[in-house]
Design goal:
alpha+beta, two-stranded antiparallel ribbon, 321 residues, 38% helix, 14% strand, three-stranded antiparallel sheet
Length: 321
């Protein structure tokens, strides 16, 4: 009856159950981490990305301060990694253009991996002679910013499909900028109509434990008392082995008081010293089983085997000679 009235009830129940199970579960491969930028990637003494350089699964905006235009992109990796790839593509366009067309190169410069971002900023950095100069100038004329951040595990489920959550967020942001002012957007139509390029990878899970929340949940849970049936079953079925009356050969090991070749009688103990407690070793050897060294802490299995062997000897007939 429920499915005939509410067609999406199953999806809602599964989503609620999955959300509770995956609560506090993170992917350790691309989890959020603090900034680790060095002097090359810092703008002054501050992080170029505002401390968000190691944020993954984001839709970002790269704002050009000279033309007041913006580029919208997405990445499953860290924000810093994808941004530096953009900067590297800018230098590749400049390098390829000079090698193929000389100083009067234009457009993509013959570089096959150029996108709208690389062509736009390569024109602004065409006077740079190497990659370090391009990176230094890009830090002056470009400002990166995160527009939307997703949850990596949830976004990965729809990767490589027509309904990829990360790609849909990127397209929605691009179309939103299209409606406001088309001229202030660097992206071209390929960023809207292209297929999903997100990768589906295996996760390495880690649980993030909130101690206060766990204690609060534990304190609010109701304590379930033992039912009468379980108590009757425990009385009806006592433990299989009773270890209270097991008589085992024991060996008493008296602690040594001697050092080297000195006899115990020649060693004088302090007057305030307390008598040493002897250590009791249990011999749990049973015929037919491998030899066991006498130990002070035998296991329950060893004690049970000794008890079974003693019962076996008690059942053997005796003969008077």
């Amino acid at each position: 009856m429920s499915y005939s009235k509410f067609t999406n009830l199953g999806e809602k129940l599964n989503g609620d159950c999955q959300g509770k199970i995956m609560k506090g579960i993170l992917d350790i491969n691309e989890m959020d981490r603090p900034c680790n930028c060095d002097k090359r990637l810092k703008k002054g003494n501050l992080c170029w990305w505002g401390g968000n350089c190691r944020q993954a699964t984001v839709v970002y905006e790269l704002f050009c301060k000279e033309t007041k235009k913006s580029y919208i992109g997405k990445t499953q990796r860290y924000f810093k990694t994808r941004t530096m790839e953009h900067v590297h593509d800018v230098w590749k366009v400049i390098e390829s253009g000079r090698a193929k067309f000389g100083e009067n190169w234009y457009g993509s410069g013959g570089y096959s991996g150029a996108d709208a971002f690389a062509k736009h900023f390569a024109h602004l950095c065409r006077d740079c002679r190497n990659y370090n100069e391009v990176r230094a100038k890009m830090k002056e004329i470009m400002q990166p910013k995160i527009v939307w951040k997703g949850e990596r595990i949830q976004c990965m489920k729809s990767a490589r499909t027509s309904r990829c959550k990360l790609c849909m967020k990127e397209r929605r942001e691009i179309l939103k900028r299209y409606q406001i002012e088309r001229k202030l957007l660097i992206n071209d139509n390929s960023d809207i109509f292209s297929s999903c390029k997100c990768g589906a990878k295996f996760h390495k899970f880690i649980r993030e434990v909130n101690l206060q929340e766990a204690l609060r949940t534990r304190s609010t849970q109701k304590k379930v008392k033992s039912s009468k049936l379980s108590e009757r079953m425990r009385k009806k079925n006592p433990p299989r082995f009773d270890f209270s009356d097991i008589s085992i050969q024991t060996t008493v090991c008296t602690p040594c008081h001697s050092v080297g070749m000195t006899s115990p009688s020649s060693v004088e103990e302090p007057a305030s010293s307390q008598p040493m407690t002897p250590v009791i070793f249990y011999d749990t050897n049973v015929p037919g089983l491998p030899y066991r060294t006498p130990t002070a802490n035998p296991t329950r299995l060893e004690l049970a085997q000794v008890r079974e062997y003693q019962n076996f000897l008690a059942r053997q007939p005796t003969f008077d000679v």
